[in-house]
Amino acid sequence: MTTAAVPATGATAGGPGGAHATARRARTRRETWVALGFTLPTIFGFVVFYLWPSVRGLGLSFTDYRFFSDTSFVGLANYQRLLADETFWNAMAVIVWYVVLNIGFQTVLAVLLAVLLHRLTRSVVIRGLVLMPYLVANVVVALLWFWMLDAQIGIVNEMLSWFGIGPISFFGSESWAIPTIAFVNTWRHLGYTALLIFAGLVMIPRTLYEAGRVDGASEWQMFWRITLPLLRPVLALVLVVTVVGSFQVFDTVAVTTMGGPADASRVIQYHIFDLAFERLDYGYASAVSVVLLVILSVIAFVQLRLMRAGESDLG
After folding, report:
1. In the chain, where does DSSP find H-type helix?
2. How far apart are CA 262 and CA 250, in angstroms?
């Protein structure tokens, strides 16, 4: 009785195929460890500076923690207090008004500036100049504009007086405080936002614009029918980043108005700062912070879903 010989494959017989598979697995493991080595500092920073403070803050929101006194569990009392806190609701109204102004002006101007950079020039020097205000510390920018817009010695009011206008108390008026702060932060972040949008414009094939010109489309028509639709994923990302960032405005307010006059510029972040570090009411401040975190998470989720950020018309 004879037994038919079964030919051995390279993988099972330790041939070239098996050697290649072993080398591939070893390379994959090595690359995985290298990737973990590069991401470990980021993971460590996220856990230490974001995850743990968030968990700690959530725990403190259920207590009456005041640092120098005994702490006790109060359940949902801080959140019930929040619902009846007129100062909290005023701060929410102020920050919403600020976000509407800041995002409205910043997004429109950033899209316009990005399109101009894309269509008219590719100069690295010009891009650097556009980004320059963003590279200056926010506190420095706030102080600079605080002096320039001063009602008595500010150069802006001096220039307005040449036309018979003013003086205007930009930071000291209830009606002007938030629009002025929105203008200052729009000026600082405009270049950065425009470059993010510019990066999206670069990804749009130029052949689409050439085809539009052949069909007789104007620049305005190509902007609405080619540029904006194809920019949707980038605009979604930009809006999420800028909206979340606008809700967290603090430096400009702390340096210029300190929430005044009459709480007209008391944004939610400054309200949390005042509760925690001025009144030492950490438990209640933590509850306000948790509510803000939930609000921002919902806003970001809704934005990404409505704008279909994960889809692209370029495919």
Report:
1. 16-46, 52-60, 77-83, 86-120, 124-135, 138-148, 155-161, 177-202, 206-214, 219-222, 228-247, 251-256, 268-273, 282-306
2. 17
Q: What are phi and psi of 73, to 5 degrees?
A: -75, 130
The 10 Å Cβ neighbour count of residue 129 is: 11
Task: Tell me which residue has tokens 């270049």.
Answer: 191
Dihedral, 69, 83, 292, 101 alpha carbons, nearest 10: -130
Its pTM stands at 0.84
Cβ neighbours of residue 257 under 8 Å, at least 6 residues apart?
Answer: 171, 172, 177, 181, 264, 265
- CATH code, residues 86-306: 1.10.3720.10
CA 274, 293, 96 angle in degrees (round to 5)? Answer: 70
Structural domain boundaries of the chain?
Answer: 86-306
Residue 82 burial (CB count, 10 A): 17
How far is the C-alpha of 223 from the C-alpha of 25, rounded, in Å?
49
> Mean pLDDT per segment of 10 residues, for the chain of length 315 residues?
48 60 83 88 92 93 86 93 94 96 93 86 81 91 94 91 89 94 95 90 86 85 85 87 92 93 94 93 94 93 77 60
Length of the chain: 315
Task: Compute how many other C-beta atoms are within 10 angstroms of the C-beta atom of residue 164.
Answer: 6
Return the pLDDT at 13.
46
pLDDT for 213:
85
Sequence-distant (≥ 6) Cβ neighbours of residue 100 within 8 angstroms: none
